[in-house]
Amino acid sequence: MAGSNFIDYVKFCSRSGAGGSGSVHFRREKHVPKGGPDGGDGGRGGHIILRGNSQLWTLLHLKYKKHVIADKGNNGEGGRRKGSDGHDVVLEVPIGTVAKVAETGEFRCEITEHGQEYILTKGGRGGQGNDHFKTSTNQTPHYAQPGEEGIEEWIVMELKLLADVGLVGFPNAGKSTLLASVSAAKPEIADYAFTTLIPNLGVVDYRDGKSFVMADIPGIIEGAAEGKGLGLRFLRHIERNSILLFLVPADAEHIGEQYAILLDEIKRYNPELLDKRRILAISKADLLDDELMEALKPEIPQGIPYLYFSSVTGFQLPALKDLIWKALQ
């Protein structure tokens, strides 16, 4: 994923089309005196529709589209001819896109399948022609129904990546190195904080042709809930993960304390994330020997499966895959 091309948040004004007005018309033909009302109905206004597309992975194509406007329906005509419906506007979005109303935060829809469609903003209904209003006591109605106005609203769309495993850790914990070691992904790797500025996905091959998807998100620091570092905006990408893989480096001051800080920041973002299965992976194990691993045991939190590994030497990487696969099953 190129950093400048990955957009996971857009806001735009969505305006559906107004319905066409019904027609006030009377049948006038040769040898048909006083033919009566025959005004047709107006056409429906155009909808704004979201459609899932598995070939898309970013909302970049919508970043500069601040106003999405559908056509209005055409007016009805004589001879009970209905006006044509307004042209619908179809916005193709990646799988995992969530749409909300900007002002209230009201949830509208979530696109989870290729080809799935959802009417985001409905077009106005067409008005009825005067043919509908004729009665035995009002045989020549000189009025018809106007078309319904379209809807104008501001919409926020967020993209939440779909993956099986989400990597959670401080900057420089080794998340990108792990992803590059077990998949074909090429995340940027360097020895400074916040090398990863956008989420990265990788497909991890397992035994017998099986595989799972791993997501690497930018590092979290203490106080991220208050906006420190890159904040928590990227945590939306692990909301759909089945497993949270916490990475803490072996050279951390205290493994348990770092794990507790990460857990607290996630809880402040969304407490429901704590219901997901968790695994603690201690990276940079090539710095340790058996004696040091035994000495670090008191620092490891209780009740969570853990494993030492090294992405550089490949130490315990097959065992880490086994642990993840077992948890996924």
Tell me what you see in this structure.
The protein has 329 residues and is of the alpha/beta class. It has 2 domains: 9-159, Spo0b-associated Gtp-binding Protein, Chain: A; 165-328, 3-Layer(aba) Sandwich (Rossmann fold). It is built from 4 helices and 14 strands. It has helices at 175-182, 255-269, 290-295, 317-328; strands spanning 9-15, 48-52, 67-69, 89-93, 97-101, 107-111, 117-121, 152-159, 165-169, 200-205, 211-216, 243-249, 277-283, 306-308. The strands form 3 sheets. The chain has a 6-stranded mixed β-sheet with strand order 10-11-9-12-13-14, with helices on both faces. α2 (255-269) links the parallel β12 and β13. The longest helix is centred in the last third of the chain and has 15 residues, at 255-269. The radius of gyration is 29 Å and the shape is rod-shaped. Residues 163-329 form the OBG-type G domain. One of its GO terms (molecular function) is GTP binding. This is GTPase Obg. It is found in: Cytoplasm. It is an enzyme of class 3 (hydrolase).
